[in-house]
Amino acid sequence: MSISGSGTADSSAHGVCFPASGTPDGRAHNESESATLPVLDLDVLHELEEDMGSTGVAHNFARDYIRIWDKRRTYLEASIADDDAEAAMDAVLSLKNSALMVGAARLAQLAVQLERLVKCGDLPAVRRLLPFVALTGEQTVSGLKVGYLPPEA
Q1: Angle, nearest 10°, between helix axes 85-102 and 123-147?
Q2: Could you give the CA distance from residue 106 to residue 3 in angstroms, rounded to a whole number?
Q3: What is the dihedral of CA 19, 20, 24, 30, to 10 degrees?
């Protein structure tokens, strides 16, 4: 369940905030960088199945993730619209942790970037990334429905 940088988001920045226009090495956010990760890492869900001794818990977790995706996205968008950094951090952490737990590798990477931006107080940069969050979240939901969950009976 390893996502590059997910466990070291704080240490990679060393407490330094970078300009909204770029990353530490001066590059702007590039959607293709996120695209190198799979939308969904099924190994994470298979590990959950093994840990729980059945597929039922993992399937229910995936269904719950799908059910509350819109709520998570809306909470993040509203917190940014309100310029509420505290609520934005809460929303980003929820997004990141749930993405990591469900194997949403691409969304988790994006959430790590959002977390750094919120910590730096760069809510305008977060605002610019919201379309990527929405798209990646929808791709994750589709991946769970089509590529992991059994068809509804």
Answers
A1: 30
A2: 9
A3: -160
Distance CA 22, CA 83 (A): 21
Q: Domain 37-144 has what CATH class?
A: mainly alpha
Tell me the C-alpha distance between 19 and 12, whole Å. Answer: 15
Question: pLDDT tens per residue, the chain (153 residues)?
Answer: 433 333 333 333 334 454 444 443 333 445 555 668 999 999 999 999 999 999 999 999 999 999 999 999 999 999 999 999 999 999 999 999 999 999 999 999 999 999 999 999 999 999 999 999 999 999 999 999 999 999 985
Give the integer Cα–Cα distance in Å for 33 and 79. Answer: 26
Distance CA 145, CA 142 (A): 5
The 3-state DSSP class for residue 42 equals helix
CA dihedral 125, 106, 3, 40 (to 10 degrees): 160
- Domains of the chain, by residue range, sit at 37-144
CA distance 134 to 76: 10
Strands (DSSP E) found in 6-147: none
Report the pLDDT value the prediction gives residue 35, as an integer from 0 to 100: 67
